[in-house]
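Lab meeting prep.
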Amino acid sequence: MHPSKKHTHNVPRPGCYVPAVTFFDSDTDRLDLDAQAKYYSYLASTGLTGLVILETNGETFLLSREERTALLELARKSVPTNYPIIAGVSGHSTSQVIEFIADACPAGADYALVLPCAYFGKQTTPAVKQVALAESPTKTGIAITKYAAVTFTAPKAGIPNAASLLKPRHPYEAPLEAAKESIWTAMEGLDKEEQRILAPTQTRP
């Protein structure tokens, strides 16, 4: 729990928590903290219960320890004071997870999320292992998730050049056109529903 806060319970309150994607400068492969701050701030303004930072959609396992801390500190600065932040702290060993938890607390996280190794069990096939060892692009799923953010969320957050900033960290495999079309159709429907839900709030005097 973040040391500056006092909670009457030790579990996150019920609601919708969204895993945040990570923005990279496509030329330098470094974090784009300006775009990231706008993204965190926008998400916190949409009625979500809280944010999950450093989960699988955030490409956590490709981030350095310093980058992980920087993102958590930025998230805390970008959202309201009492806004819940859950930090993904999964690692490759117990000691690494403990280290990530120790980093997350002073960086501003309220809670920690650990995915057990079994979470990836069915996906870790011999073919996946072979591809991983060859360091081939394997992140089609992340690219699709980020395409959805590029198409709808980033423009609302006022982030320019989102298509470039939201490419997954290298190496990655770009989403196919069929996947893009499917995402566009699904997100368009969700976007209309979001506008319908928020409309009464936005027009209220």
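Slide two material, second protein:
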Amino acid sequence: MAKEAELNRREQEIKRREEALARAGVIIEPKNWPPFFPIIHVDISNDIPVHLQRVQYVSFASLLGLVICLFWNILCVTGAWITGHDPRIWFLAVIYFITGCPGAYFLWYRPLYRAMRKDSAFSYGWFFLFYFFHIAFCIYAAISPPFFYMGRSLAGIFQAISEMGENAAVGIMYFMGFAIFVLEVLLSIWVFQRVYWFFRGKGTEAQMRPDAATRAPPS
């Protein structure tokens, strides 16, 4: 009985704290994604205005796309390392992954989420700054010029061509890496453009709706 009373007391205390935070305007964001091991908060359908949800969903896809790109990049570089290349390229690929994924979430995805949720000009500015660097990095990765450790720490087109002459299997993996980096670039440019249009006032609520393109203009 004493343990049950203690649990009830703690629940009431937590509830009072949550209510106090809500009255103070502090938004509580419970972690809910991924469902099997929640580490971040994603609730676009409830947090984001309806006319902005499509862009927010695509920006989330862009975040997941970057995770896929960097993970596949590790696999490609692992193959290159196994076939005799400098092992330091593998460590670089791992660094890209362990810094790039959380960095993208905190530096541009969360600012965009807050910007669309609260209509914050500061958050929009923060998003534009770091999303520009995100796009620039993805373009660089897709090209992977032979500068840093001959560029083999990134699965881009130059390294894919080079690897094809040494190991066809690894070369194909690099070409696949190039393809997904290109897709990530195109997706990211679309997001950047749409967010910019809305921020500048060109993307009105009607224009930002998913079905806007299918509606005929007024006669």
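Talking points for slide two:
The longest helix spans residues 168-199.
The chain has eight helices and no strands.
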